[in-house]
Amino acid sequence: MSNPNQGPGPNPPQVSNQRHVLCALVQNVPGVLAHISGMLASRGFNIDSLAVGETEDPNLSRMTFVVVGDVHVLDQVGKQLEKIVTVVRVLDVSSRDFVERDLLLLKVKAPAGTVRSEIRELVDIFRGKIVDVGPDEVMIEISGRENKVQAFIERMRPYGITELCRTGRIAMVRSENRMPSINDLAAGLASA
């Protein structure tokens, strides 16, 4: 029995609710998504997000998973995916320097006047755009990191969300020999 007053030993326990981003390149053939999602469900893996789309190669699709669990769960998901014939490669994106995005379409009650102006101002602050306008509601598009999208949803709730749709996360590993972006430079200046 360990002493609760002692710090973690040489192998600290793994956090069980960590979120890991995995990308799988798969052959672009019918039934791949059903096969993979069925395998993950049958083994009880908790998939928080799943996004699928085409790649630069028309023969391949890219599946991005957000898996919730410890390192053991991450390892098991990777091993199970690699056993599937149509899976070409699996990459643990979250273990590298990466960029992630989530896309949101949201309809919110927005009668003409002050309320609509408030909503338009929030959309601008979150760098979104209004993509459709009806007599009493607007449709908004927001993309960004998951926490930004979630924060925007929470700001819209008091106005009355009538419909919401999200893509799930997509992610890509940064180039190793990339030039620093404006955001990187700003972050460097802020920490100096």
TrEMBL record:
NCBIfam families: acolac_sm, PRK11895.1. Belongs to the acetolactate synthase small subunit family. Transmembrane segments: none annotated. It catalyses: 2 pyruvate + H(+) = (2S)-2-acetolactate + CO2. Dimer of large and small chains. Pfam families: ACT_AHAS_ss, ALS_ss_C. The lineage of its organism: Bacteria, Pseudomonadati, Planctomycetota, Planctomycetia, Pirellulales. Catalyzes the conversion of 2 pyruvate molecules into acetolactate in the first common step of the biosynthetic pathway of the branched-amino acids such as leucine, isoleucine, and valine. This is Acetolactate synthase small subunit. It comes from Novipirellula artificiosorum. Its EC number is 2.2.1.6. Residues 21-95 form the ACT domain. Signal peptide: none annotated. GO terms for biological process: isoleucine biosynthetic process; L-valine biosynthetic process. GO terms for cellular component: cytosol. It comes from the Bacteria.
